[in-house]
Fold this protein.
Amino acid sequence: MRIAQLVAAHQFQIIEGAPAAPRAGEVQVRVSYCGICGSDLHNFSEGSVGDTPSVFPMVLGHEPTGIVTALGEGVSGWAVGDKAFLEPAIYCYHCPMCLTGRHNLCDNIRFLSAGSEPGYFRDIVSIPVGCLVRIPLGVSMAEGTLFEPLAVALHSLQFADLRPGATAAVFGTGPIGALTVAVLKLHGVRRVFAVDPVKHRRELARAMGADAVLDSSAIDPSREILNATGGRGVDTVLDCVTRDGSLDHACIAVARGGRVVATGIPSEAKPIIHFHELRRKEAPLFNVRRSNHETHLAIELLRDHTKLLGPVVTHQTPFDSIQKAFTQLEAYEDGVGKSVIQY
């Protein structure tokens, strides 16, 4: 089988490897598509994710769909040929975090594509049967790769405390930011501001339902939001990019008593925030760690709102051209929104 290894920043190498047979309780799957996540791009562009150095060579990819090819001993309910979403997180289920239901903070988590844990940029993977979720009718294998980033967007809303008539701003309208705009509007948020310096990403946010889109390369977005809200600011700011001063703008744009939610991963090991803006407003800053129990809701939304959410996937690139896909995404070329690798 083919394996796409990131061997250094900006450098993929495709090698051949032998697929592992499924063990008891596992299912072997041939991967069909896998999305490129922002954290994958951090590894590619910067050689780290925040303060965590990349472990080269590494196999990225954690937004996959695939087709069952073999069943391990004791597996029931699945058959060869079944189509599935493939979860990247493997939990221990017995640590304090798991026992309190916060599986995304598992002390012993194995997150496929993080560090030395190989991800899904390989043809064939054997994983625990609990990592498979059926793809509903009407959702394509390429669109299905949105299940994981959509679950992250839904998880971020757990911290947003949105109430009827609420207002919100989303900084960064790449795939997770655009999906965040969509779920905010589906949640009934009255007015959503979307902020991004890249034109085609602002247009993607508009297509997802943003009420106002702001070009952060041409204006001061936090001041524009304050002006548009009579100086009050918005109830919740979700920062899905955490770069180029977006966290500072989030602290300024949030209303008194509001909330700031950081979904994006800052490139800096020690990012600076506008602490006193938050202090004076008694506005907490929440951090998002992947997702937790949101996968099935994400799948329902993909099924029920395919025409709204599906267009986030703008580019499909053959597996052997994975280097090109990452380079294109890094440069925001060709109107790229969500880029997925096709196997």
Remarks:
- The radius of gyration is 20 Å.
- The longest helix spans residues 175-186.
